[in-house]
Write a sequence for this structure.
């Protein structure tokens, strides 16, 4: 190669480097491989099934702080404490921090990778390896300092697609955090209502125990007076013992429920016992319940939003895999200074060495690994799309099931309320007839048992109505505000 040709080549290198830098700086001039993501369009029904919305008002649902409709200060405090202390929520936030760091890793690939190097050695060479004129071993010192760097030019959009995928994964982790919020507020409220319902059931059990003890004493008095057989006494004993046997189970369930609440708040299981041991009424909504349209689920339900973001992240990975089919362009450079005397390292110009220029790497043959990796990413994207569609269907089912459960349980509760009133009146009447000698004690026993069962079912149903309402709010994605961002 002649001097002129060498001169042209040397001048061409800086020019090619400049072109590659411009391409790197203008992210997007080169082709970006892989499909550009578009959010899937889903056919959503315009309204909910008519039968399941009876008793629920049309209109925009106020979901962000839905528990406020109960006007229960204790529940409000529990929600606030759970927001601060729940460990699952803290774990979900840690996953956001991890996703942010991973996004930073991918974004860092846009910049050069620079490394400093250094070497300081003392080398002893035996005389047997030295020239024949040298009769003894020699010790040499060697010092070398420098650096090297490389910069990948994102010509095919591999880095851009990696960042795009990382961005979507970060957003998916945020939706996961919000989904934990939705479930947390629902679990706290449901367990709180369960505790209040159990307290009501315990109250009814104790009331029935007191009534049945009076009936037992009545049969004993009548037996002592020769007005009733011993069978009446034994039946009264049976009725009382059976009712008393239900009390320990309810007391156990109450303690377990309060323990669960303590753990949900990130505190010791027994932390809430003193606070919740005093009975209180089951919270009831102070205003009409409104539900939005099915299409609003796509915006409000965090699990749907998370599935959509996971689909976006997976779609971008197709482009990352396709980039491996093409050559990778980089800028590479080194700079070194070496000398046998440390004082000469910075002054000995003849020991300085540097290199700089573009390079490329292209996998010519890999046995089909890259193409199969692309097919695998395509298949994973198909799976992510199906998961997204399934998540939407599950959400619609969840809402409709919660609505029908709330409506029908309210119907059942109202019927049980009437049944309780009739049972109490019937018990009073049959006891009067028994005292008058116009009926036997078996009728008294059956009515007292029936009254206890109806009161217990009524108290349980009152709790279930509110728990099912909580499920409606949970299924609608209530408990977070789409306009509020998550920050460190």
């Amino acid at each position: 190669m002649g001097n002129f040709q060498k001169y042209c080549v040397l001048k061409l290198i800086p020019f090619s480097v400049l072109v590659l830098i411009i391409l790197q700086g203008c992210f997007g001039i080169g082709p970006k491989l892989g499909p550009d993501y578009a959010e899937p369009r889903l056919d959503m029904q315009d309204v909910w099934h008519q039968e399941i919305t009876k008793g629920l008002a049309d209109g925009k649902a106020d979901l962000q702080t839905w528990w406020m409709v109960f006007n229960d200060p204790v529940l409000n405090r529990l929600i606030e404490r759970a927001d601060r202390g729940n460990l699952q929520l803290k774990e979900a936030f840690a996953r956001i921090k991890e996703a942010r760091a991973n996004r930073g890793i991918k974004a860092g690939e846009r910049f050069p990778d620079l490394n400093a190097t250094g070497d300081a050695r003392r080398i002893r060479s035996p005389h047997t390896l030295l020239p024949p004129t040298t009769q003894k071993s020699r010790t040499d010192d060697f010092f070398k300092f420098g650096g090297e760097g490389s910069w990948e030019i994102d010509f095919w959009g591999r880095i851009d697609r990696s960042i795009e995928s990382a961005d979507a994964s970060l957003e998916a982790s945020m939706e996961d955090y919000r989904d934990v919020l939705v479930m947390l507020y629902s679990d706290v409220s449901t367990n709180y209502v369960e505790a209040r319902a159990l307290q009501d059931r315990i109250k009814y059990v104790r009331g029935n125990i007191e009534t049945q003890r009076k009936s037992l004493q009545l049969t004993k008095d009548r037996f002592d007076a020769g007005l009733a057989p011993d069978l009446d006494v034994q039946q009264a004993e049976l009725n009382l013992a059976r009712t008393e046997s239900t009390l320990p189970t309810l007391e156990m369930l109450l303690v377990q429920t309060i323990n669960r609440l303590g753990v949900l708040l990130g505190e010791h299981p027994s932390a809430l016992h003193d606070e919740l041991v005093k009975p209180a009424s089951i919270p009831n909504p102070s205003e009409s319940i409104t539900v939005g349209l099915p299409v609003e689920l796509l915006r409000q339900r965090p699990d749907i939003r998370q599935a959509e973001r996971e689909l976006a992240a997976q779609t971008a990975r197709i482009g990352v895999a396709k980039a491996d089919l093409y050559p990778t362009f980089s800028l590479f450079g080194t700079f070194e200074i070496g000398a046998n005397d440390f004082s000469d390292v910075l002054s000995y110009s003849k020991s300085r060495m540097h290199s700089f220029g573009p390079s490329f790497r292209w996998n010519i043959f890999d046995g089909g690994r890259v193409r199969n990796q692309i097919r695998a990413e395509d298949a994973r994207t198909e799976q992510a799309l199906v998961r997204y569609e399934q998540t939407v269907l599950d959400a619609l089912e969840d809402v409709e099931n919660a609505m029908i459960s709330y409506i029908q349980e309210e119907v059942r509760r109202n019927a049980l309320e009437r049944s309780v009133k009739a049972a109490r009146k019937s018990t009073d009447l049959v006891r009067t007839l028994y005292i008058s000698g116009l009926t036997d004690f078996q009728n008294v026993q059956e009515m007292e048992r029936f009254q206890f069962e109806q009161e217990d079912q009524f108290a349980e149903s009152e709790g279930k109505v509110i728990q099912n309402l909580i499920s409606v709010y949970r299924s609608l994605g209530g408990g977070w505000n789409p306009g509020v961002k998550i920050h460190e």
